[in-house]
Amino acid sequence: MTDPDPATSRPDPTAPRPDPNAPQPGVTQHRGRPRIWRGEELTEPMPLSASLRRTPYRNPRRMEAPAEEQTVRTALELAVRAGELMLRCGGSARDVESSIVAVATSAGLERLEVDITNQSLLVQCVSPSGQLHTLLRVVRSTSRDFARLAALHEFVEALVAGRIDLRQATARLRQIRRHPRFWPRWAITLSYGVLAGSVALKLGASVPAVALALLSAMLVDRVGRVLASRGLPSFYLSAVGGAIATAVAWGAFVLGRSGALDLTRADSAYIVAGGIVVLLPGRAMVSSVEDAITGYPVTGAGRLFTVGLTAAGIITGVAAALSVTVRLDQAFGLGASLPKISVEGAGVALPVLVVAGAVGAVASAIAQRTRRKLLVPTAVLGGLGTLVTGVVHQTFGLGQLTALTIACVLIGFGGRLVALRMGAPGLVLVVPAVGPLLPGLTIFRGMSLLVSGSVIGQGGASTAAGLTILLGAGAAALAIATGVVLGDLMASPFDRQIVRQRRARLR
C-alpha cells in the first residue's frame, strides 16, 4: 500500500463544513423535541472559594501555591486553628466555614473541603503533588468572648487583603489565642444585673422591683459560677438560676405584703422575667436558626437542641419554685397568690422603653465580653429595636410578633453594615441588641398558669392557657432569630463598598 499524496489529502476549502447539530454516532438523539423543552447543560460543581462571594472575605489576594508539603500543612493548620477558635467563641457555621476558606485560599491552597458538624471541624486539602492532608478538631466547650471573635475577623481581613504573610499570620493568631479576656469578672456579674433590671424597667416595674431584679440576677450569676466550677452541667445551672430568681421575687412580694417593701403584685413577675432573660441563650438561639437556614442543618439542630435543654432547665427551675411558693402561700395564708398580668407587661412610655432597651443592650454586650468601641452602636441598635417594636405595636396596631420580627430585621440589617465598618462580624452587635427583647415575662406567665392549674389546682388558671402562652414564647424567640438572620442576608449585597474601603485601608 502507498501513502496518500499530501496534496490530495488536504481538505477541500470549497467543500461544505460539517453541521455541528448533525446526529453523532453512539449518541442518543431526541427527535422532534423543540428547543424550548430541552434541559440546560450539566454544570461543573462550584469551587469552594466561590462561597466567599457574599461574605466580607470576597476576592481574596492569593499567595503563591505552596510547593513543599510542610508549607501546605502549615497553611492548613492555620486555617483550621482560626476556624476552631471562631467556633469556640460562638461564631455561626457559615462564618466559620467562610473564614477557613478565606484563610486557606489566601495561603495558596485550592483543593479544599470543609465539614462542620456541631462541635467537630474536619478539613481536607490536596497538595500540588497530590498528597492528601486531613485535620480534625473537636470543640468541647464554648465561651462568650465577642472581643476575640472581632479580633479573629480582623485577622482574616488582614490576610485576605494581603497585608500579612503566612509567618506573620501564624504569630498573630497565636497572639489572639493568648490575649487575656476583656472586662473583669465583677463587671460581667454587674452587667447581668443591669440587663435584668433594664428588662424589668421595660416591662413597667417600680424602682424597688428594678433594684431587686438587679440583685437577683447578680446572685444567680455568682451561684452559677460556683456550681459550674464544680462541674455541674448547664441544664442544672439553668434550673437553679430559674428557681433562685423565682424564690427571690416571691420573698420580696411577701415582704411587700407585710409593708416592708413597696411592691405590687406584677412587680414579682417582672423580677422573675428579668432573671429569665439573663439565663436565656440568645447567642446560641440566633446561631442555631442561622445554621439551619443557611445550609447547616445538623449543626443547627445540635445547637437548637442545646437551646431547648437550657430553656427546659429554666422552666424546670421556675416550675419547682412556683410549686413550693404556692404551697407555702396556701399553708400559711400569706395572700401572695400568683399575679394575673398581661404577657406584654404594663403600659410604659416610649422614651423609657428606648432607654431601657439601650441600657439592656449595653449590659448584654459587656456580658458577652465585647470591645468597648462597640458599646455605642450596640446601644443604638438596642434602643432602635425597642422603639420600632413599641411604635409598630402601639401606634400601628400590628401584632406583637409582627412588630418583633420587623424590629429584628432592622437590627440584623443595620448590625451587619455597622459591624463590618468597625471591623467586626455582625453577630457581636446583633446578639446583645436583641437581648432585651427576649420573652422572659411570657415564659414566667406560662409556667405560673401550668403550675397553678395542673400541680396545685388553683381556680382561674388553665393548663391549656399556660401551654398556649409557652408556645407563644417559643414563637417570639423564633421571630427574633429568623428576623435577625433575614436582616443579615438582606444586608449582604450592600456591604461591598464597606469591604472595599476597609481592604484599601488595610493594604
Automatic annotation (TrEMBL):
It holds the Pfam family ThrE. Residues 1-68 are annotated as: Disordered. The keyword Ribosomal protein does not apply. Its main location: membrane. GO terms for biological process: succinate transport. Keywords: Cell membrane, Membrane, Transmembrane, Transmembrane helix. The keyword Membrane applies. GO terms for cellular component: plasma membrane. It is found in: Cell membrane. One of its GO terms (molecular function) is transmembrane transporter activity. Residues 78-324 form the Threonine/serine exporter-like N-terminal domain. Signal peptide: none annotated. Belongs to the ThrE exporter (TC 2.A.79) family. This is Uncharacterized membrane protein YjjP (DUF1212 family). It comes from Oryzihumus leptocrescens.
